Amino acid sequence: MKQDRVVVITGAAGGIGSVLVDRFLANNDTVIATDAIKEGLETLSSSRNAGVKLITAPADISSEEECVELANVVRESLGRVDVLVNCAGYFPILPFEKMSGADWRRVIDVNLTGTFFISHAMLPLMKEIGWGRIINFSSGSVFNGVPGQTHYVAAKAGIIGFSRSLAREVGGYGITVNVVTPGLTVTKAVRENFPPELLEAQRNGRAIQRDELAEDLVGPVFFLASPDADFVSGQILNVDGGMTTH
């Protein structure tokens, strides 16, 4: 197993991101954890005894300038990036007919444009070492659609097209690009904002009839980040307990 990598994780203070941080730290990797919520990063840092292996750096990935600044911090402190996990997401529920242009743009900016900005900023730090992994989070919602989330599902579908095309461009540099599509994952934010009957319907619709947890995504992401996935690129790894099958 490859160790001592430099791993950048966006959305690192969230329910999924923080679990991914723990897994890479446990592998003796150095993790740059970034999130727009500064307080969440402070909590993450104070609750982990990771020393210099965990670097927290607040950034709004929907800002191109902040993504470039983050890449500069990584370059100056560590000099390279081996793995980029684009886990940041914003998933409000809003009926289409009540959706404003500003509502649409904000969701697209965080979920799709932000993935472009941070990938664009970090790519030179992978090219210089001739090896890299970019792992983008889409969503299982792209397969069937979700009422009240046309902006979110559109952004996450865009992630798939973006990743497939980027994989074609960067494969010659030894860099792979892949997508994880989680089902509805029961994090604290989901439990507080989604109705219980929806969570029950998700459980009942799966081949594995239980809640999907953040921990269920760790193994798939870790595989795609590893040398075991050297010949896997431009692919979707669907992790939803068998809600949809491909």
Question: Which secondary structure elements does this structure contain, and how are they paired or packed?
Answer:
Blueprint (H helix, E strand, L loop, with lengths): L5 E5 L4 H12 L3 E5 L3 H10 L6 E3 L7 H14 L5 E4 L14 H27 L4 E6 L3 H4 L5 H21 L4 E8 L5 H6 L2 H9 L13 H7 L11 E4 L7
Parallel strand pairs: 1-2, 1-4, 2-3, 4-5, 5-6, 6-7
Helix pairs in contact: 3-4, 4-6
Can you characterise this structure?
The chain is of the alpha/beta class and 246 residues long. It has helices at 15-26, 38-47, 64-77, 101-127, 141-144, 150-170, 188-193, 196-204, 218-224, and strands at 6-10, 30-34, 54-56, 83-86, 132-137, 175-182, 236-239. It contains nine helices and seven strands, in the order E-H-E-H-E-H-E-H-E-H-H-E-H-H-H-E. The chain has a seven-stranded parallel beta sheet with strand order 3-2-1-4-5-6-7, sandwiched between helices. Strand 1, helix 1 (15-26) and strand 2 (30-34) form a beta-alpha-beta unit. The radius of gyration is 17 Å and the shape is globular.
How far is it from the N-terminal to the C-terminal residue, by CA? Answer: 29 Å
Mean pLDDT: 95
Spatial ordering of strands, largest sheet:
3-2-1-4-5-6-7
How many structural domains are formed by the residues? 1
CATH topology: Rossmann fold
Q: Give the full name of the CATH homologous superfamily.
A: NAD(P)-binding Rossmann-like Domain
